[in-house]
Structure formats: C-alpha cells, structure tokens
Amino acid sequence: MLKKLSFTDEVVDIVTPTNEVLSAKYKRSFAYITVRDRLPITITNVIDLLVRDKDKIIDEFGELAKEEIKEVIGQFSKLKNELQTNKPFQLLTSDGSDVPAWNAYYERETDREGEVPRWFRTSWIYAECYMYRRIRETFELSSSLKTFDPFRKSKEEAFHSSVDAMAILGDYVLQQLQAHGVKRFPSSEMKKVALWGNQYDLSRPVGSELPEENDPLKNIQLLSDHVLVDESEKMWSVLEAAAKHRESITIDIVADNAGYELFADMCLADTLCAFSLATKIRFYVKTMPWFISDTMEKDFHWMRHKLLEFSNEYPNLADLANRWEEHLNLKKWYIEVGDFWTLPHVYSEMKTADHQLYDKLSDATLIIFKGDLNYRKLLGETNWAPTESFSNALQGFHPAPLVTLRTIKADLICGLKPGQAEATAAKSEKWLITGDYALIQFDG
C-alpha cells in the first residue's frame, strides 16, 4: 500500500499551467502521479530484486555482498521514505565523475528555488533523474556491488520476450539490404519501425499496453493514423542532399531503450549505411543504469552477442549481428558514452554545461533523438501550448539539423495544429501518457 503523504498543503490541485516547468507540485499532472506512485514502486522493485536474487548476486559478486545487500536495502528504504515524505535533496558523496556536475546543479537549483530542492517542489526531470542517480550512488558506495545493475534482469527478460518480433523485423531489413542497389531507400517503413520501437519501454505508465500482435510490421500499419506530426520528409531531404553532393554523412542517434527499440535503431542505422545515406553513425548511450530500460554500452554489446546465439533458430538475427560487428570494426559505427546524458540538465543548457558534447553534435549531418525522456529535455521540461512551434520550444538548442522520434508518454507536447490536441483528447482522454500516439518533429 502506498504511504499517505503528509505535505498535501504543498501540492496545488491544478493542471500544470501553460509555459510552466513540469513538477509534482501540480496535483493534476503526470509528474505528480509519477513521483507519488511510480518512483516509489521502482525503488520497491529494486529492493525486491535484491531479496529475491540474493544468492545469485552473492555468487556473482562475492561473499562480501552478503552483508552489503542488507546495507543497500536499508539505504533504499531510507530513500523511499525521503521521497514519500518530501524530504530535501542531498549532495552526492560518491566518487563518480559526474558528482561535481550534480552537486553544482543542486547548488544552482537551491539558489533558484530559494530552498533546497524537494521531490514535490522541484522540476519533475530533476526529481526523477535524482532518484535514479541516488540508486546508482548507493551501489557506488558499496565495496562489492559497485557495478551491479538493478535493471539488468528486466532488460534481459524484455529482450527475450521480443525475439520473435526482432526476427520478423530482421527478415524484412535483410531483404531491403539485399535490394539496396535496385530499390530506393524504404523511408516510409524504416521511419515507422524506428518510431514505434519506442513503445517497448519498461517504465511505461501503468495501464498502458503494447499491441497484442507480435508482428512489428503489422503493428506499425495499425498505428499509422496515430502519428500526430510527421516531418520525416525533411529528415530524408537533409540526408539525400548530402548524399547527392557525395559528402561525408554523420548521423548521431541519441538512444533510448535497450532491447527491441535498440534493435530497431540498429536496423535503421544499417539500412541508412547500405543505401549510402550515412557514412558514419554514432550511438549515444548512458553511462549507468537509467530509467529502468535505457541503453548502456554493455547492453549494446550484450544484445549483439545474444543475437549470435540464434544462428540455428533465427539465422537472420545472427547475420545482422555479424554485420553490426563489422560496422564497429570498420569504424562506420561508434558507441559514445558521456556523463551529460544522465545529468538533470535540459538540452538548451548543453552548450554551457558540456560545450565539448555540443560541439561534437554540431559535426553531425543529422541528430536523431529517440524517446520521451529526450523529448522532455529537448522541450526544457516545459508545458508549452500544444500549438507552440517545435523550433521555439527548443529554446535555442540547435547544434545541427535534428529530428525527434517519440511515442508520447508524458504530458507535454508542441508543434500541433490548432484543435488537434482537443480532437485527440476527445478520442482518448489519456492520449498524452499511454504511448499510443507519436510524433516525428524536425528542426533544420
């Protein structure tokens, strides 16, 4: 049972006002539901995992882990209590390379808010990122569990549950790759594959369900009329123009979820390379376990190796894994890691918070941002009017032409036509949080 909150006087019973930053202080917002319900459940699930898999963890991490598991569980119980009673945030104390940036952000927000940030008073993005960073810090401060990923098991289970869907998509992609000298790039299908792959998210809102049909190619056809904005032609135009002039084409993919979505992203990347619409692709991934299902470098490699194990049952999956290994070896593909992606900064702050990353992105021909968390950061975690232009909502963030592929799972949006938000809400009251609708938005 969820703990009764004792600070309801600090939460206002309204929706998030237009142009305000998303925060759990607005009771009729998805931020409030997330901080009140979903974040404590995430902590509880980590505790349950440690209890349930204690013996396996000790086998993997050594006898010292036996006592440290108890200590870690105690720390997570404390963290959960801090959240549910709206306690002030704390400075981080581990030796992580990102700790100075985190603590500087804490000091900045304390000055800006006029008090130490708290769960139900600060921005949603800060509160949510802070929880995942505190989970990571708890393991960092241990001796034996420093590298433990509390979400590894759920990511691996999600991978195995989607292998059949990967096999169907893999067959289709290999057919396209074999025809690359004859056919045009299958832009319509590949954009949908990459877009709707974002539905496979382990932190999806409770009550939202994936389509029962496990054929991703059928699913994307069923969902075609759920794409509220589709500016993909502008994206392809950028790449085709660069290819026409025989320019070197660098595509940056800021990844979201591991498992099926990452597989779909790699299929898109492979197809772009085969059709000469990319000469170099850089995948930006997280440095630590993040938002349950976000991609880390180890998830990238783990999936490739797992696909090779299906050489008998699904030989096409092994063929793709071998192709992708070759792309990495030939330096066509790169895996990029960096602290910025797991900081609470919105992207309009990147230029000052991490100018080296901003400059690197500026070298790209096109940047593809995947998923809802990236979208929230692109929009500055702000409740824009639905008709506000995507370009304005970026608040000056434009290192290079960029596109966002997002299935909608949070109550912020922009770039819609007048009346479009209202018409969609009439069809589905919870359209902003179920992941059943999507956007492809471009800023050139």
Automatic annotation (TrEMBL):
Its EC number is 2.1.1.-, 3.1.3.-. GO terms for cellular component: nucleus. It catalyses: beta-D-fructose 6-phosphate = dihydroxyacetone + D-glyceraldehyde 3-phosphate; beta-D-fructose 1-phosphate + H2O = D-fructose + phosphate; L-glutamyl-[protein] + S-adenosyl-L-methionine = [protein]-L-glutamate 5-O-methyl ester + S-adenosyl-L-homocysteine. GO terms for molecular function: metal ion binding; phosphatase activity; protein carboxyl O-methyltransferase activity. It holds the Pfam family ARMT1-like_dom. It comes from the Eukaryota. Its cofactor is Mn(2+); Ni(2+). InterPro entries: ARMT-1-like_metal-bd_sf (IPR036075), ARMT1 (IPR039763), ARMT1-like_metal-bd (IPR002791). Keywords: Hydrolase, Manganese, Metal-binding, Methyltransferase, Nickel, Transferase. The keyword Membrane does not apply. Metal-dependent phosphatase that shows phosphatase activity against several substrates, including fructose-1-phosphate and fructose-6-phosphate. Its preference for fructose-1-phosphate, a strong glycating agent that causes DNA damage rather than a canonical yeast metabolite, suggests a damage-control function in hexose phosphate metabolism. Has also been shown to have O-methyltransferase activity that methylates glutamate residues of target proteins to form gamma-glutamyl methyl ester residues. Possibly methylates PCNA, suggesting it is involved in the DNA damage response. Subfamily III proteins have a conserved RTxK motif about 40-50 residues from the C-terminus; the threonine may be replaced by serine or cysteine. This is Sugar phosphate phosphatase. It comes from Diploptera punctata.
